[in-house]
Please model this.
Amino acid sequence: MMISRLCSAFLFLALMPAMAIAASFSVEKTPTGGAIVKLDGDFLTELVVDQANKTYLWPIIGTSGVTMTRAYPMKTVEGEQHDHPHHRGLCFGHENIAGYDTWAERATFGDSEKTAERVKHLGAIKLREITDMKGGEKATIRTVSDYVDAAGKKTSEEVREYVFAVQGGNRVIDVDIVLIASEGDILVDDKKDAGLSIRVPSEMAVDRGKEGDKGTGKIINSEGQTDEDAWGKRATWVDYHGTVGGKAVGVAMLNHPSSFRHPTPWHVRTYGLFTANPFGLSQLKLQEKSGAVTLKKGEKITLRHRFVFHDGDEKTGKIAEAYEAYAKEP
Model:
C-alpha cells in the first residue's frame, strides 16, 4: 500500500510541469485614478489616465518578461526613436470626432502658423469613472470616458472594456470600445490618423525611420502581405514581431467579425506604429469616396480587438489559430 502511494505521488510530481496552472490576475487602483494590473504578483501593465489627452496602457510586459511598448514619451531611453510623442503605449485616438482631435496632442506640433489651426482643434478623452475592476483567472477593467472639445465641453462618450488573460502561453488583452453620440449628432471623419494603436519597441521596428537604420522587425498580415505592403490593406489580423533584448517576441492584433467595418484596414508602419483604422477609407487609399460617417444622437460604433503577445513569429505564436478561436467568440 505504501509503495503504491509513493508511486502515485511520484507520478503526480512528474506530471506537474505538463499540467496547466491557472493564471492569477489582480487589479488595484492608482492614486491618480488609473489602475495597475499584475499577473501572478508581477507587474503586467498600468492604465494611465492623467498624463495626456487620452488614457493608455503603458508599459506592457509581454512573454519572456520583455517590455512590448516603446518608452517614449513617458520615459527617455537612449537608442529609442523620439518621434510622434502622441504614440503612447496602447491607446485609442481619432483626428476628428465631432470636430476635435484626440490622436495628436500639444507636444505633436511646433509653433508655426500651419500647425496653429490643428492646436485649436485638440480635444481630449477624459476618464469619468472606472465602473468595474476585478481580478482572478482573468482581469477586467471597464471605463466610461467623455470626449470633450478644446474648451472642455462634452461632445460624445465612450465605454471601454479591457480583459486580460493567458492563453496557451500567450498574454492576451481584449479591448472593446463603444463610441456613443450621447450629446447629439456627430461626424466621425475619414482620417488616416485614427484607431486603436500600439507603438512597438524601437528595436522591434522594421526600420527606425532613417535610411539604413534597420530594426529587427517584420510585419505580416492574414493575407500574407508584409512590411510596407501591409499598410492600408484590409486583413483579419496583423502580426508585428522581431527581437527585444535578444529575445524573439511579437504582438498580433486581431479584428473581431462584429467590429465596425470588419475586416479593418491597417495603418501599420515599418517605423513601429501599429494601428487598426476602420475610419480612413479614402486616406488609407482604399477608395476615392470619403468613409466619414455621421452618428445620429444615441447611435454607436463598436470596435472589438484582441492583442496577443507571444514568443517568436506569427507561426510560433499560432496567430492564425488564435484568430479562428477569437472569431467564434460571441
